[in-house]
Amino acid sequence: MHPYNIDSNSAVPADHPFHPLSFELQQATPQSKQRIHDLWAQAAGTSHLPPQAVLFSEWPLIASQRLQDKLTQRTEALCQVLQPHLQAQAIQQHGWQQGTAADVLTIDYAIICDGDSWDIRLVEFQAFTSLLTMGYRLHQVHSQLWPQLADCPPWQGKKTEQSWMQASRAWLAGGDNPALLEYQAWQRGTLFDLHACSLLWNMPIIEPHLIEVDANGRLFSTQHGVRQQHDHILNRLILSELEDDAQFLRQLKKSQLNWHSHPAWYFLVHKGLSAELTIPFEPKNVKLNQWHELNLPAQEIVVKNIYSCGGKDLRIGPSVQELEDLSRAGQGDQWLVQPRYRPYPVMSSSNGVPVFAEVRMIVQLQENQQTRSQQTRIAMQILRMYCSEQASASFFQGREGEGANILHRPPNN
Questions:
Q1: Could you count the other beta carbons within 10 Å of the beta carbon of residue 139?
Q2: For residues 1 and 30, what is the distance between their CA atoms, to the nearest angstrom?
Q3: Distance between CA 133 and CA 173 in Å, rounded?
Q4: Closest by Cα among 6, 22, 9 to 67
Q5: Dist. CA 6–CA 357, nearest whole Å
Q6: β-strand pairing of 178-181 with 205-206
Q7: What is the reported pLDDT for 69?
Q8: Residue 165 belongs to what H/E stretch?
Q9: Sign of CA dihedral 266, 260, 371, 123
Q10: Contact present, 188 and 146 (Cβ < 8 Å)
Q11: Residue 276: how many CB atoms within 10 A of its CB?
């Protein structure tokens, strides 16, 4: 099995995860990272990007029909299994006055080796929106550079940008005066997406120290001497990150708000749940204190802290001693254990370096009021192209093809 070189003249394998149009466009109109970097910043209207052009991949990539079908099938199956965990009652049981059903699920799938071919494998999931605006602006950039991609949006239905914008506005930023809530927003590596989101939806970024909730549950923020009330919150806040969250949490629990990505969902629906569920198409996952049940040597498993993100607290092929040390420290139920996989080399750079891929599916959930079931729509398909062992942006070094990208849907899909 040899990774395909996007700049080569060899035929694209019939069973490749990416559509042949990906290679045709790249060969006809190759682009540089700097060009993508500059156009994205221009489209998003923000300068909060890394100083070096390392964030974005420069390759246009379209899913093959087989890859798209697999992603849709697996996404729908996971949402069905998770349905009992996504209902409003879970919020109320944790002391919040207003129960809000989960309205978003972000799911990561790796493209992996399966014999001489490829498949996809669930990496993790969370009830949190991440990189949606980045993907939308990148689609605009791609449509400018490769006009054929304007009709291959990285989202389901809502074929035009206008229809996507209308649906997303109501979902993310409904109400008369929404705000984006985050902790230490201006120090984050994700500020490029946060600020772009703030500009796209015309909402201020507010932080916990700027907020007060009055006796009637109305939430206000004060910035630059101006006090305003907010009726809808697009949440990017993880409560455990606060240095002292007790008082702020008490305020939030009595607030009368509409939420997108309610802060409690981060702890109620996360990758650790996969150890408690039987997920169609996926191998068994367990907690650390049950890792022997997988009947795999330690070198063939991956261990990750269930509350970590961004590639932190990840052990690939740990030693038995490491596993025993974590268990003795009483952390057995805080770590998820998964069978290790071999990433499939979807591409190869011009100097022969294999490039791998993870797909992030951002799924809009909407509760059917009659049946209490969850209806799903893929709101964005993000790609992370990587050359090392991990797909996290913290490992991006500006190598050819590496970086954040979008996965366009197949033509006429």
A1: 23
A2: 25
A3: 12
A4: 22
A5: 14
A6: parallel
A7: 98
A8: helix 161-172
A9: negative
A10: no
A11: 10
pLDDT in tens, 315-349: 899 999 988 888 877 677 889 999 999 999 999 99
DSSP string, 69-125: HHHHHHHHHHHHHHGGGSSTHHHHTTT-SS-----EEEEEEEEEEETTEEEEEEEEE
Burial class of residue 28 (count of CB atoms within 10 Å of its CB; 0-12, 13-18, 19+): exposed
Ramachandran quadrant class, 157 (left: phi over 0; alpha: psi -120 to 50; beta: rest): left
Amino acid at 47: S
Q: How far is the C-alpha of 283 from the C-alpha of 67, rounded, in Å?
A: 19
With a CB cutoff of 8 Å and minimum separation 6, the contacts of 398 are 33, 52, 53, 54
- Alpha-carbon distance of 307 to 331, in angstroms, equals 12
Strand order in the sheet with 335-339: 286-287, 335-339, 301-305, 314-316
How many whole angstroms separate alpha carbon 408 and alpha carbon 413?
10
Structure tokens at 14: 């019939």
| DSSP structural state of residue 142 | H
343: three-class secondary structure by DSSP: strand
Question: What gap in Å lies between CA 22 and CA 100, rounded to an integer?
Answer: 40
The pLDDT, as a whole number, for residue 134 is 97
* Amino acid at site 32: S
Q: Which residues lie closer than 8 Å to 413 by C-beta, 6 or more apart? A: 65, 68, 152
% pLDDT > 90, the chain: 69
Length, in residues, of the chain: 413
Is the pLDDT assigned to residue 12 strictly greater than 60? yes
Q: How far apart are CA 197 and CA 260, in angstroms?
A: 13
Output the six-digit token pair for 260: 């997108």
For residue 138, pLDDT beyond 60: yes
Using CA atoms in the order 83, 409, 152, 8, what is the torsion angle rounded to 10 degrees?
160
How many other C-beta atoms are found inside a 10 Å radius of the C-beta of residue 9? 7
